[in-house]
User: Fold these one by one.
Assistant:
Number 1:
Amino acid sequence: MIYQLEPIAALATAPGIGAIAVVRVSGEGAISITNQLFRGKDLTQQDSHTAHFGTLRNDDNSIIDEVLVTVFQTPKSFTKEDVVEISCHGSEFIIQQILRRLMQAGVRLARPGEFTQRAFLNGQFDLVQAEAVADLIASDSDASHRAALTQLRGGFSKQLKELRQQLIDFVALVELELDFGEEDVEFAHRDKLRQLMLDIRRVLHPLIDSFSTGNAIKNGVPTVIIGKPNAGKSTLLNALLNEEKAIVSDIPGTTRDIIEDELFIDGIRFRLIDTAGLRQATDQIEAIGIERTQQRMRDAALVVYLFDGKNIQPEELQTAVDEVRSSGKPYLLVGNKLDAIDDRKRQVLEQTVGEQVVWISAAKQTHLDELKLALSARVRTDSAVQTGSAVVTNARHHEHLIGTDSALARAIAGLDSGVTPDWLAMDLRVALQHLGELTGQITTDNLLASIFSKFCIGK
Ligand SMILES: Nc1nc2c(ncn2[C@@H]2O[C@H](COP(=O)(O)OP(=O)(O)OP(=O)(O)O)[C@@H](O)[C@H]2O)c(=O)[nH]1
Ligand SMILES: [Mg+2]
């Protein structure tokens, strides 16, 4: 069932001056109303998905602009309503004139996200996909673009919808048991129900886990550079950013505050964080800086441990590396000041740590490409980006995935301890509620309003 609502219009392309701009009109009468302003052909007589050259006129018949109008007939359009896209010249004045004429003819201005909301309400896609449209529009890195596209194509919601349907069937049976009250009947096959719940949880877990990666893709991988004072952390940050962002000096303890900037490597956005060198603080300010370093290390997705190859002793390096390992974070060991050491020293240090070390000279800016490669490889290996599997980038989705999972965990525990059907039904209902809200099969006006208001007008 397709609903055609009152016609709305908005600029669909970015505001500002451009070669062309597109004004989109959608809703009941979109084609015939546009036709009233259009001279060239009778748009109401044209096939869907065809483009027509002509002019748009003011009420005194003067020309507003020469335009190309594309007609999309319901239901084969983005919103599934009748849609007209008017390509005009990209001048603010012309766009305003066209919108004003459309308003006069009975079209109203679209609210933010209203086109996408209509597409959703007409079943063009589910809520996860609608939100992916917003992410796609906002995506500014290769990886976030890919994650949004995967979701738009259906991503995990299709699979979850199927599992939800199966769960609904079971809940109906469990609730039927309730109707029989005292009688000891069992319509819902307990083993099959348990298996289904386990299956759903198996689907949920990688999705829940993917959120930290997903978040990193969207907002940048927080990458903290740590090491002893004078290791060359600030020099490295500057070299990678190609800018004198942080103060560099040969005084240990130069950096006291957190310095942060973004860097794109291989389509991945990194948030590089330079920190205060780790040592026994010599004053209160340095102590605060070191505390902040530790905080940033806890929040980081990737740790770059940088050491001064010239001034570090093997035992000291060993202790430091053990500490980094025990943090449980993905890390990269980077040896600095390659220009100031000989091969023998390098080999001794490498043997000490017994794993891959990336050697660079931050000051001389050598081997930085190898370091960049190692950074992007590190992110790609422990993320789903590479395999193209679904990645959860949205906090709302993450919340409902967790909600579903814990309700199912309770239901399974209940089954195992032989709870009564009413308890079981309650947990199952909670799981269904979360799943439904996730994919948009259960919606409230508030939820929809809050999601679609995050879009910009014209989307
Ligand atoms: N020879 C050589 N010296 C370097 C290299 N990288 C950094 N340095 C020098 O090492 C000293 C310390 O560099 P910084 O970048 O300030 O070190 P840091 O790790 O930020 O030190 P803190 O902020 O005090 O923790 C400076 O004198 C740098 O010029 C390098 O690759 N080779
Ligand atoms: Mg520094």
Number 2:
Amino acid sequence: MSATGRERVPIESGYFSVPESDAEAPLLFGSRCKKCQETFFPRREVCASCLHRETTDVSIGPRGTLYTWTYLYVPLFNSQRADDGGYAVGQVDLPEGPRIQAVLRGGPDDFAIGMEMQLELETLRQDDEGRDVVVYRFRPRSEGGSE
Ligand SMILES: [Zn+2]
């Protein structure tokens, strides 16, 4: 349940968790190789590093470090934000190992390489059953603030 009181569902299952409360951070669903311990996102059955065929499901996140980013001055195709003049895309290094590409929340002046990032969910739209359809994003992590 989100602050809106609506149930939340992921845009696609198997990639990230949707906590009951939006005060709780989501986690990404990854895999860890049982042989070399390399961690991957999204999940995979065969290790991309050593080709071992046994992996364990692991939850990764919700924090990372911004490796690089760019800002695109075009609206995000699936956004409902009225003020949408663009969006940022970045690569975030997770402490568990993977570097993942994701849409970032914030304006063109909000990012710096090396800054701490926080995983969160954004509502894209409501589905036919009135549920919030959510996707994961990263935003700059601030102490004590929500933005
Ligand atoms: Zn491996």
Number 3:
Amino acid sequence: MPLRLLTAGESHGPVVIAMLEGLPAGLPLSAADIDPDLALRQGMNASGKPYPGASPRMKLERDAAEIVSGVLDGETIGAPVTVQIRNLDHAKWQGRAVPPMTVPRPGHSDLTGAVKYGYSDLRPSLERGSARETAARVAAGAICRRFLDEFGIRVGSYVTEIDGVRADLSGIELEDRLRLALHSEMHCPSAEAAAAMRARVQEVMQARDTLGGLFEVVALGVPPGLGSHVHWDRRLSGRLAGALMSIHAMKGVEIGDAFVNARLPGTQVHDEIVLAPDDRAGRLARRSNRAAGLEGGITTGQPVVLRVAMKPISTTLTPLQSVDLASGAASPTAYERSDFCAVPRAAIVGEAMVCLVLADALLEKLGGDSLAEMRPRLAALRQARLEDLPMQNVPRVWWP
Ligand SMILES: Cc1cc2nc3c(=O)[nH]c(=O)nc-3n(C[C@H](O)[C@H](O)[C@H](O)COP(=O)(O)O)c2cc1C
């Protein structure tokens, strides 16, 4: 896979860092391409209105990207691109004696991380297991978004369900969903559903509890032919699902309406292949997009639609039962400043991971060390024509 991402940094350390290796040269890039995505991840919609349910820390942090390698004179040079984001909260923790944390929160990496690495204090699990790391992913995703933009590929997201409030988006085109979500109070294209979701989040905060929910990530303008059916780790469906599942608290990924489709017969699910109407060049078209843009682990050229399930936030104001590992006695969990519902913010992280995987797949498909080398290669991909397929009506002997 040509594009590699490394992230580093702890939740209350001085910085979080993203390093992207494998980007071609010639991509115009500045911090201004990254900061808007960082603001969305922090819990501020594109109109500058905060989402409810975000941790008070989000009011303190003002995430700003500093590009420290790989860009000269406003363009990538083909070398690793490194971005750092300062943790403003770090100053409060610097030189402070922090009591050991010995009661693991169920649902977090506190216990599993400490058992695995042998920590005697749970804080190192928390520091690196925290979703603060997703700021680095979003920075890297924004760079990939900038790259995809050069090829007419757009990635967006929207929240579809929180606490039983399900947005009915059936009458809203994908393009419009992405646009409306950006300015919504809950990152949801339906104003009615957004208002109901907001009320539910406020109720759950009063009830000293937390929520998860569902969001969708959509990619538009994706050319056919990204990914491959020939090997398990090259199938784009698996790569996308794996990248989304790697985000903290994501517990399910669905390609399109996969779970509904699984209950239907094939004739009601598969997208019939037809000759594009009024197209003399012999282009192909589909009657529907139930496959959500992916067949055989390869993009079809239709929109890619991925649905993601996030579990409720695991730090709850109402204590959960746990055990104090220092004394061995049963103990309720202690509360640390935390989000109540982070689904609108998680959707932005989901976009970042999809941008990363698509940028990687595009680089794999087109090859090339500079944007100038890649651009002409895309045009051919955009045309899936019958006459280009190497098919001849001649019997062959397949096996030796
Ligand atoms: C954007 C975002 C914000 C999050 N904020 C919090 C938080 O404030 N408190 C918390 O306990 N968990 C938060 N989480 C979830 C934890 O990181 C998650 O529960 C933990 O990593 C364990 O999940 P896992 O089992 O999937 O790794 C957040 C997740 C995301 C994606």
Number 4:
Amino acid sequence: MDLKSPEPFWLVKNGLLDSYPSLKDDIECEILVVGGGITGALIAHQCIADGYDTVLIDKREVGYGSSSATTSMLQYEIDVPLYQLSALIGTEKAVASYKACSRAIDQLEAIAQEIGSKAGFERKKSLYFAAKKRDVAGLKKELEARAAAGFEVEWVSKSDLSHGFGLEKTNGGILSQQGASVDAFCLLHELLAYNQQRGLRVFDRTELKKVRHRKGDSLCTVVSGAKIQAQKVVYCVGYESQSMIKERFVNLLSTYAIVSEVDAYACRPIENLLIWNTDAPYIYMRCTDDGRVLIGGGDEKFRNPQKRDALLTRKARKLCRSFERLFPKRTFYTDFSWTGTFGETKDGLPYIAPHKDFKEAYFVLGFGGNGITFSVVGMEMLSFWLKGEIHPLQEAFAFGR
Ligand SMILES: Cc1cc2nc3c(=O)[nH]c(=O)nc-3n(C[C@H](O)[C@H](O)[C@H](O)COP(=O)(O)OP(=O)(O)OC[C@H]3O[C@@H](n4cnc5c(N)ncnc54)[C@H](O)[C@@H]3O)c2cc1C
């Protein structure tokens, strides 16, 4: 079967899980969360847990932004290696950022359990392998930096990767114990449904158009003309944030993903692994909970949607060939392929912070290859700020850093 779809696999797999009304009347709340992707759903979960009267709006159907396109590898490993990040921002902040992402994976597991999730959260090890011989020295440095910071890591040789996982054409790599995967689209729907039972109000097809800040609150007007009076606004608007903020803080790219047929043979050796490599752009892969291989990569440094979509067939073929090169004994039977926008920052870190041009508001923007773990870190940061407390990572994730 060679069924291709311009729609991400998760949308087809899950269908329309829930629908919410659009906002037609004026309302009031303590916290307005703008954006109903995985970030907005997690932030709303935290706000409800902290006892705030919370409203979430999305201009699309909830989950129809990047969260429907994601490959959802949950990694503590940031796109910039720890030893390089330490050189950029200092060891203390770099290690704290890595540790926060590691804790985020445990927290997400606890959330999945709390809400009785069926989104396929699975613990996995993470393999970061050297694509070229010349990358080995850097990876060994990275291994040392991570071990010194207390992460459970080991070096796996080229021949161990070949014998253990059937993975060829590598030069060895770092195997980390910490990692996981989940169906983020399903999880965000579950989070919204769970919190709706606890008082969360959700409106989709409700675009925020204008915000007027007043003493003590903000008057937010949505596309229908209805107004939301909110004490605080939390923007979880993903990559579209770049059009709201004057300065350039994220590079928007185009990225590609393919998923195979259900294929136990192809999945078996790597079903408990997240895999990525040192190539630029890097390739990343994992198995889904229904036994398919999922691969992403082929990033291009533009985000023009027409240009991006026109490359899909070629990119899908290339990703498929990459898999067969790495696993020469296996064939990749592509079932779905799609493309989406992706954002990278200068240091691989997210922007989770207030911004000087937006009063009584916060941004939670989990960019990079582990955007989802960053969003979980954002839950804790926001919770601190709403209580008037300082968070240890706020400088590292601030605008203008
Ligand atoms: C192919 C691909 C692979 C990826 N792989 C991984 C991975 O393996 N691991 C990982 O951690 N991350 C990965 N990412 C990144 C990850 O998907 C994102 O970090 C994450 O989905 C961002 O979620 P979000 O909720 O912040 O943004 P989105 O899901 O885009 O949600 C933002 C929402 O805000 C809404 N919105 C915007 N403006 C307004 C407005 N004015 N009014 C109302 N609503 C508004 C949008 O409609 C949208 O639904 C990948 C991304 C892609 C595209």
